[in-house]
Amino acid sequence: MANQYKVLCNRLGYTFQDEALLELALSHRSIGGKNNERLEFLGDSILNYVIGEDLYHRFSDAQEGQLSRLRARMVKGATLAELGKEFGLSEYMKMGSGELKSGGYRRESILADAVEAIIGAIHLENDGDMSVCKRVILAWYQSRLQNLSVKDTLKDPKTRLQEFLQSRQMSLPQYEVVNVTGQAHQQTFFVECRVEGLAEIAHGKGTSRRIAEQVAAGEALILLGVDTRENDK
């Protein structure tokens, strides 16, 4: 293993014998030629299975809908991007000059895809031995899984707002970023949410556009008089 990857492998808790596989997993499609898209596809499937199986045993009384929402929370792009940042993947990503100039090494979607690609690479290196992937993935997710609760199965505000409006044949909400403050690495986003039939504009702010939109959606639900408590069925 080349020195450039030793630190990364320590962070991953897995040492690649085939350095080329790890390099492929870290190769964004912007470089052209061989890239990590196929490994990402494979890793996504494995991740969903491993997390799904763990949740099945961890929450023996949970219903299917609850398990699905817990799994979605664990495998969504934002969670994977957090893992990518913890591993320091930005230091190792290989991408085209255009993507580099636009700050692609910080983009959550790219980091999330790379995490899935690494899972796919681990699976291939071990000839499909799922036990190896399972050990590595569950080690990555240990603290997150331990802190999970069935109470976390409430749908997020944006989803609840969308479903509420769709159930009444109303137009989907319109989100708009109206201001961004702070330095690139520590920004605050201000979002407005406009809803058909609602005179007031809902507002939200957060450290990312996604978070700000969720806050604004939550305020819109309150303005609409929607009960934000959700049945666990």
Notable traits:
single chain; 233 residues; mainly alpha; Ribonuclease iii, N-terminal Endonuclease Domain, Chain A; Double Stranded RNA Binding Domain; 2 domains; 3-stranded antiparallel β-sheet; 10 helices; 9% strand; globular
The number of helical segments is 10
Order of helices and strands: HHHHHHHHHEEEH
Query: Structural class of the secondary structure composition?
Result: mainly alpha
In CATH, the topology of the largest domain is named: Ribonuclease iii, N-terminal Endonuclease Domain, Chain A
- How many domains make up the 3D coordinates? 2
Overall shape: it is globular
CATH homologous superfamily assignment of the largest domain: Ribonuclease III domain
First CA to last CA: what distance? 49 Å
The whole-angstrom Rg is 20 Å
Strand order of the largest sheet: 1-2-3
Note poorly predicted spans: none
